[in-house]
Amino acid sequence: MVRLITHNLLACHAKGCTTNNFPLQFKDVSIELREAEFNADFLKGLLPRIEWKALVDAARQLGDTSLPLEQPEMVDDEFLKNLHHVLLEMHIEEGAMVCPNCSHVYAISNGIPNMLLSEHEIA
């Protein structure tokens, strides 16, 4: 499934694409919201590993503006619930992710991103 928790880890890996290849940009996506169990401790442990600007930008591409532009030093329940929603409840079902550097398109179908490359695209 493409959720923003996954998207925050994905970069373009096409041959020769080594700079400005993260984060991938969403294009023509359809989103499904699915409730997920809230776990504050999990979210707090995940926070140091998140590329914050990439997450906020991706959420805004998908129409969610609940996260602050800067990662807060002190987190409260409202912040954690917004983070939970953005990371775990927003599912990208269809569409594509596009590399900002080489414009390679990674299709998303039935919630699954196709990150495979053709033979000529492999580094």
Automatic annotation (TrEMBL):
It holds the Pfam family Trm112p. CDD domains: Trm112-like. It comes from Steccherinum ochraceum. It comes from the Eukaryota. This is Trm112p-domain-containing protein. Belongs to the TRM112 family. GO terms for biological process: rRNA (guanine-N7)-methylation; tRNA methylation. The lineage of its organism: Eukaryota, Fungi, Dikarya, Basidiomycota, Agaricomycotina. One of its GO terms (molecular function) is protein heterodimerization activity. Interacts with TRM9.
